[in-house]
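Hi, here's the filled form for the chain we discussed.

Project: internal
Contact: R.S.
Residues: 198
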Amino acid sequence: MVALTKKNKDLIIVVSGLPRSGTSLMMQILQAAGVPLLVDNVRQSDVNNPRGYFEYQAVKNLKNDNQWLKYAKGKAVKIISHLLYHLPAEFQYKVIFMNRNLDEIIASQNRMLKNVGKVSEIDDDTLKRHYAAHLFDIGRWLTHQKNMEVRQINFHHLFEKPQTELAILSDFLNIAFNTKQIQQVIQPELYRTKITGH
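And the returned structure, exactly as it came back:
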């Protein structure tokens, strides 16, 4: 584990974004960097996330129960973007927000559903408009939260220019990374739904 600075030890590192935006990959990166994670491994790895989901089940009920957040101090926890609104103001957060092409996100979600024998109940165009509106709203909201620092990390760039993105992440968290070690986590086979023309 990395020795978090005194300034960081009471911070909660939040990995967020839309579903299928690369949040699990970011949790893997932080783990490789030695950052402690708040996970419970209740949701096991599967064909959609062969390296695991890195989730903490209590997150899903954040709107009604946030008592568990005290255990997240000095750690990284994965919280999907629509739940960020429910984070209590009593804590300080550093939010790593995963940014990914919306067409890729939707294609990845459709692939995930197909793998479990389901189909989306919302057509792609409607879902894309919904996601775009949500990203605009949550982005505007985050800029007004005095207890939150936010850094966008581009999923595509993690694969195309990982050193640049990891340098941004290292600076944001004020943690020195072993870049070569971490880059081993960012494997091309993890980028399975790719749309050209970024």
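Let me know if anything looks off before we file it.
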